[in-house]
Design goal:
By secondary structure, this protein is α/β, with parallel strands linked by helices. It is built from 13 helices and 18 strands. The strands form three sheets. Strands 5, 6, 10, 11, 12, 13, 14, 15 and 18 form a nine-stranded mixed β-sheet that branches. Strands 8-2-1-9-17-16 form a six-stranded mixed β-sheet.
Length: 404
């Protein structure tokens, strides 16, 4: 039985429900496109200009859940040519001296049947934002309000202007604070330093996650011998590394990488940022939803950050379609979103937190346990498939949109 449209629903002259998205980074921009595809009219706001939004120099690891969402939004074919696929993920515990290699044979059978030819893909922020902003500019249902602070939302005594407000304004979300939503925060005492280098001894179709006592270290291929490094270390060490001249930085880098890797050229200025575990105590209040890092943040180990944010968008997309079709009252969308997202968020944050705490230490008592875990992974394909499926699609992630 179809739900009756909410009597308070705001409809534009075209008959669309109306949403405001606060924050036009990768998650907010994709949320705006998802809402427009679902049949909503959208106002996308950010105090930064389009040029400033695209300037960040970093790379992202995209997993299978992100690929599936981009395909549903008809974006994958446009962005795939700019991505660097990798068909091997090597997980090394340098303390226990054990390694596991995940390959294409470790993808779940359902993924294999879809013709997936990579475990994951690496893409640059500037190229991703250029595509998202281009598509947003082509969407007649999206009004871009970039480079200026949006007007405040009307108070409760006024006729509601928006059916839905999406807060995608980052870990220091002003919207979350205004709503009075508290969050759990736990700093790791680490920073994450990113840098792009030319590296010998590394293959362009392989990615590495090096588990070191001072913190995880990811080596992500960018093509043509270039690699993005994601180096977790104590805050003081990262600040020191950030200030070194290029030659000294490369010397320090060579000292921490395995012997097979030889860094040749530093291609950009290393940048460090603190890492923490963050989780909002609720994901919505009234018609406002917290999406992406306004709601949660995890350690970058395993490349879960952006993919976890985009799984928020995947659920939002499905619920927004149901609301536009009259199958879900807009006022109930926030509660449905929270129910759908909590299991994946809690278990993903717990898994990344445990990985850091178990592998980023020098305790001799944990070495046998770590060695046994990686030995079992290396020996049993079924266990590798289960691990890779959770890393690739999340816990309880939505694989396909339900039938209308």
């Amino acid at each position: 039985m179809l739900a009756a449209p909410s009597p308070s629903a705001v409809r534009t002259p075209s008959g669309r429900l109306l949403a405001r998205v606060l924050g036009a980074g990768p998650t907010g921009a994709l949320a705006a496109l998802a809402l427009a595809e679902a049949g909503w009219a959208v106002e996308l706001c950010d105090p930064l200009s389009a040029e400033a939004l695209s300037q960040r120099r970093r790379a992202y690891a995209f997993n299978q859940s992100s690929r599936e969402l981009l395909q549903r939004l008809d974006l994958w074919s446009a962005i795939e040519p700019s991505l660097i696929p990798f068909d091997q993920l090597q997980l090394w515990d340098l303390g226990a001296e054990r390694a596991v290699v995940f390959g294409l044979d470790d993808l779940a059978p359902a993924q294999g049947r879809c013709g997936v030819s990579a475990i994951g893909w690496i893409g640059r922020h500037d190229q991703l934002m250029a595509l998202l902003l281009e598509r947003l500019g082509q969407q007649q249902a999206v009004s871009l309000q970039l480079g200026r602070t949006p007007a405040p939302a009307p108070n409760a005594a006024e006729l509601p202007r928006f059916d839905l407000v999406i807060a995608a304004d980052g870990p220091e979300s002003a919207t979350r604070r205004t709503l009075g939503i508290s969050c759990w925060r736990r700093p790791y005492g680490q920073s994450c330093l990113t840098a792009e280098v030319e590296l010998r001894g590394a293959a362009d179709d392989q990615a590495w996650e090096l588990l070191r006592p001072e913190g995880p270290f990811a080596v992500l291929p960018l093509g043509e011998g270039r690699f993005q490094l994601v180096w977790s270390a104590p805050e003081s060490r990262c600040r020191q590394l950030e200030s070194l001249p290029a030659s000294a930085f490369l010397d320090r880098l060579a000292g921490v990488l395995p012997d097979r890797f030889q860094p040749d050229v530093l291609l950009d200025q290393p940048r460090a940022y603190p890492v923490e575990l963050l989780l909002a105590q609720r994901l919505h209040r009234g018609s406002t939803l917290l999406v992406g890092e306004s709601a949660h943040r995890c350690h970058p180990v395993g490349g879960q950050g952006l993919n976890l944010c985009w799984r928020d968008v995947a659920v939002l997309h499905q619920l927004a379609r149901r609301a536009a079709q009259g199958k879900l009252q807009p006022r109930r969308l926030g509660a449905a979103y929270g129910r759908r997202r909590w299991p994946d968020l809690l278990l993903t944050l717990l898994a990344t937190d445990l990985l850091v705490r178990i592998f980023s230490n020098r305790s001799p008592w944990l070495l046998p346990i770590r060695g046994l875990a990686l030995t079992l992974l290396a020996r049993f394909r079924r266990l590798r498939r289960l691990t890779l499926a959770v890393m690739s699609t999340g816990v309880g992630a939505i694989q396909h949109s339900p039938p209308d």
